[in-house]
Design a protein that fits this description.
The complex is a heterodimer of chains A (326) and B (324). By secondary structure, chain A is of the alpha/beta class. Chain A has 10 helices and 12 strands. Classes of the chains: A alpha/beta (326), B alpha/beta (324). The complex binds adenosine-5'-triphosphate (ATP), adenosine-5'-diphosphate, iron/sulfur cluster (2 copies) and magnesium ion (2 copies).
């Protein structure tokens, strides 16, 4: 049944505890179901604060207080082995899945390098733990393939530009040929030429290794350029999933429509309007459809009841009362 | 027509960097803004000197060479009353709104201080005036009055920062990457505001950005910077749809397009540079030579001149025969 599914997320619910005694928490992931297919580039879209990074952390099993998973499951299927991520502890995850089965490029990752360690030592550390041999000449070949010179191995992180550090973090994540790569906002802080180069590196390695790439970004332009499918998140919920081309041609959820229609394009000066307001405070999300305070089509039922997830066709699902056939 | 702002051959030298040598973060830049409401974009990659230029115009840096004239006056030589006048006329909005406000101070206090001390509003009128200005950015006094900076979202706080700039009824606002930290869906609301203020209040903007799509959408003119130099300058419709300089061309081709049909071209592999940036700053000839697909012998030996082509100026040897 799960032949072409590499990650199956079911009914996932994750919160950041604020005040345990008074039961105050940020409800960052709420009832998420998502099937990620083997060999695809899938995007996770949505404005900042909608839970994209939280979802990524849970998929990877990087769960530390105040982050807590309240329910649901994440199963990874790789090389005929099933890994139940949420049933493993951190030690097991580190030994069995991190770096080799799944790797994770966190948001702001150019700042995750250890400032007092040379770049070379970062590579050696990962290799020592996970590979049978530590072969630095392989590392040299690898980073040269990313347009970096071998000298950077001797540099400390602060001696490199942001773009170079970003490439180092990506090289680390790809080095052990993981079957799944999660990249959280991999190019938010870089300019467009470098952004294009870095995303091309990720996509080329995905094609070459035929692995699965999960790209998280609020930039719909990036989704249009590299993803096969997109899942749109709003306030902790996945509100629409579909093939990228179909979704850009015909976005169904009012939130997806807002995201796409607010983008200006070079060569077109016609007036664009953005979505009004901003995502809600997830300590106290709106009842019913969480998007209703910003939705131009909100109806009575939207304010009272959570919309069901509706399957439009093989590839497209949407959570919105507008698509409920009565 | 007289110019509102004129930069004449501005050069700013910094004395450190990765290799500890002197380099020109801004290299003989000349620009002018006509004295009519307009939006002038400065774009270019990280480290190209955009912020340094903005800080020179605001008087925070003194250039080693060149002068900045605002309404004909050299702004680095202003004295007495003129200093205050310039602070009223020219306001700034920065990239990170959280860094522009003291986290321990209610934002209302900032607005009040600016209104009273710089704009010269009377104490009994100040709240009404602040409320009116906040409404122009889609907020209101009661939504703001008791809050500290961290109690606002990034988009809201940036709107407060814009309101603060508007309080002095400025003629010019320098906005340094005002939307870079905001989601695309919020960017458009902010840039729509700039367009609206230009039309309604006759305010001009210097809009500094990486985001060429919003630049096209709102601006009249654009300057593309590379390693401290302006490499192409002209009306935004020309520069961004028929770019002449090889760097402008790559820049525009690299903008992600929100249309999956455009992806084939965008995915055509580009080579990532491994050149140390500071070396390009001190290159003898064209600073783009180490990356340029059209590089010629002359480019390495001699810096290219500014060549006027129609309404545009381009700094590239490819156009040296083609004068109009
Ligand atoms: N106070 C300073 N002392 C020394 N070097 C500086 C100083 N300020 C800026 N620089 C250097 O000058 C160059 C231009 O920097 P600037 O901040 O103007 O670039 P920018 O175009 O605004 O870049 P970004 O897009 O990253 O904001 C960079 O190499 C930068 O490191
Ligand atoms: N360590 C944390 N503690 C408390 N709340 C957090 C923490 N990290 C994120 N949040 C909150 O969780 C929600 C989702 O955040 P995040 O997953 O980072 O969203 P995105 O990646 O879509 O921007 C937001 O309301 C955010 O403020
Ligand atoms: S369910 Fe209602 S409020 Fe929510 S997106 Fe659909 S129409 Fe809008
Ligand atoms: S002057 Fe020469 S190297 Fe520089 S951009 Fe023009 S063609 Fe390229
Ligand atoms: Mg995030
Ligand atoms: Mg800057």
């Amino acid at each position: 049944m799960f032949e072409d599914i590499v990650i199956n997320v079911e009914d996932l619910d994750a919160v950041y505890d604020i005040d345990v005694e008074r039961n105050v928490y940020v409800h960052a992931v709420d009832g998420v179901d998502l099937q990620i297919r083997r060999g695809e580039v899938i995007g996770i879209a949505g404005e900042s604060g909608c839970g994209k990074s939280t979802l990524a952390k849970v998929l990877y099993g990087f769960i530390h207080p105040p982050l807590r998973v309240r329910k649901g499951s994440v199963n990874i299927y790789v090389d005929n082995v099933k890994y139940d991520v949420l049933k493993m502890n951190s030690e097991e995850r580190r030994a069995k899945i991190w770096w080799k089965v799944i790797s994770y490029i966190p948001q702001n990752s150019m700042n995750v390098l250890n400032p007092v360690e040379r770049i070379r030592d970062h590579f050696i550390e990962v290799l020592k733990y996970h590979a049978s041999t530590v072969d630095i000449s392989k590392v040299v070949g690898f980073i040269e393939g990313m347009g970096l010179k071998r000298e950077v191995l001797n540099a400390y992180p602060h001696q490199l530009s942001g773009g170079m550090r970003q490439r180092i973090v990506i090289a680390l994540a790809l080095m052990l040929n993981p079957r799944i790569v999660i990249a959280d906002e991999p190019t938010t802080a870089v300019d467009v030429v470098l952004q294009r180069g870095i995303l091309q590196l990720l996509v080329e390695s995905q094609k070459r290794l035929n692995n699965t790439l999960i790209v998280i970004t609020h930039d719909m332009g990036v989704h249009a350029m590299i993803t096969h499918r997109v899942a749109v998140m709003y306030a902790g919920n996945i509100v629409e999933v579909g093939g990228t081309t179909a979704m850009f041609e015909n976005p169904l959820h009012p939130y997806t429509q807002g995201l796409i229609n607010s983008l200006p394009r070079i060569g077109d000066k016609s007036t664009r309007v953005g979505l009004a307001g901003s995502p809600p405070d997830l300590r106290n999300p709106p009842p019913g459809c969480r998007f209703h305070p910003r939705c131009p089509y909100a109806m009575d039922i939207c304010r009272r009841e959570k919309p069901p997830t509706i399957k439009i066709d093989r590839d497209r699902i949407v959570s919105c009362w507008l698509y409920m056939k009565r | 027509m007289a110019n509102l702002l004129e930069l004449r051959n501005i050069t700013k030298i910094f004395r450190y960097g990765l290799f500890g040598f002197r380099f020109k973060a801004v290299d003989s830049v000349s620009l002018s803004l006509e004295d009519k409401p307009l939006i002038f974009t400065i774009a270019g990659e990280s480290g190209s000197g955009k912020t340094t230029l903005a800080r020179i115009i605001l008087g925070f840096h003194i250039p080693e060479y060149g002068e900045v004239l605002y309404k004909g006056k050299n702004i680095h030589k202003l004295r007495g009353y003129d200093v205050k006048w310039y602070r009223r006329e020219v306001q700034a909005v920065f990239q990170d709104p959280y860094a522009s406000f003291n986290p321990l101070k209610k934002v209302y206090n900032y607005l009040r201080e600016t209104a009273i001390n710089i704009a010269g509003i009377g104490r009994d009128e100040v709240d009404g005036y602040i409320d009116e200005v906040l409404k122009a950015v889609g907020l209101s006094l009661d939504k703001v009055v008791n809050k500290y900076p961290h109690e606002f979202s990034g988009g809201e706080l940036q709107r407060v920062a814009i309101a603060r700039a508007l309080l002095t009824k400025p003629r010019l606002i320098i906005a340094d990457e005002p939307v870079s930290m905001l989601d695309a869906s919020l960017r458009i609301n902010i840039v729509n505001m700039f367009k609206d203020f230009k039309e309604r209040y006759g305010i001009s903007f210097i809009y500094i950005t990486h985001d060429l799509s919003t630049a096209y959408y709102i601006s009249d003119n654009i300057a593309i910077m590379y390693r401290g130099s302006v490499v192409e300058l002209g009306p935004v419709e020309k520069v961004l749809t028929e770019p002449l300089h090889p760097y402008t061309q790559v820049l525009i081709e690299s903008v992600p397009i929100p249309n999956p049909k455009a992806r084939t071209k965008w995915l055509e592999t580009i080579k990532l540079s491994s050149v140390v940036e500071e070396k390009e700053f001190i290159a003898r000839g064209c600073k783009y030579a180490s990356r340029c697909p059209y590089v010629m012998k002359r480019c390495i030996e001699e810096p290219p001149p500014d060549i006027a082509i129609g309404s545009r100026v381009v700094k590239c040897w490819l156009y040296s025969e083609q004068k109009t």
